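>> received
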Amino acid sequence: MPVESRSYESPLRVEQRERTRIRILDAAIEQLADEGLEDLRVPLVARKAGVSVRTVYVHFPTKDALVEAVAHLIDERIGSITYPQAADELPSFAVSIFEAFDRDERLYTAATRSKAWREVSARRRGRRIEGLETVLDQDLAGLEPNARREALAAIYVMHNMASWRAMKDNFGLTGPQAGAAAAWAVHALLRELRRSPGKLEGASGTDNQEELGDGHAQ
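>> returned
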């Protein structure tokens, strides 16, 4: 009776293959950060990873498969934003988020240049906004729908990668300085929400401009 052959791959070989795969993905992330998605070239990725082009295609049969894998790796490393349970913790949370952006700047830069990752992030955006709205429930209570949406949006963008990047690129702030600015803005917004029974009602109109001008940047 013939003996049935079984394929066997040693744990060491599996580990080596995974290391090669991650090395290829890291090289692709580096190239995305430097040059953007349009200029992602498999031969350059292979050279950066120290492997052959054939090895890249063994792990990722197409460029699209490589980009998709890069998006998932970035997503795993970055993770999703989980807001604190108390609104008073939001300023310090803004600092920690901006510190994370600064610590892994190349990774976040690559993320913004990956269409696949942006699509993943967009699918999560609704849940993030709902989470923030839950944290701010008491502070937003009583606001008219438009004012509620404006307040929520203002605090949301202070925990946003685009705001971190804008502060660094347009104003020359370091990561810690950008985090401090974001924390100050969140703290000021919370204080304004709690300051008076009227809260932000009419803040975008002319009636409240003089009142808001006291101690606030125009």
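>> Residues 147 and 188 are 16 Å apart (CA to CA).
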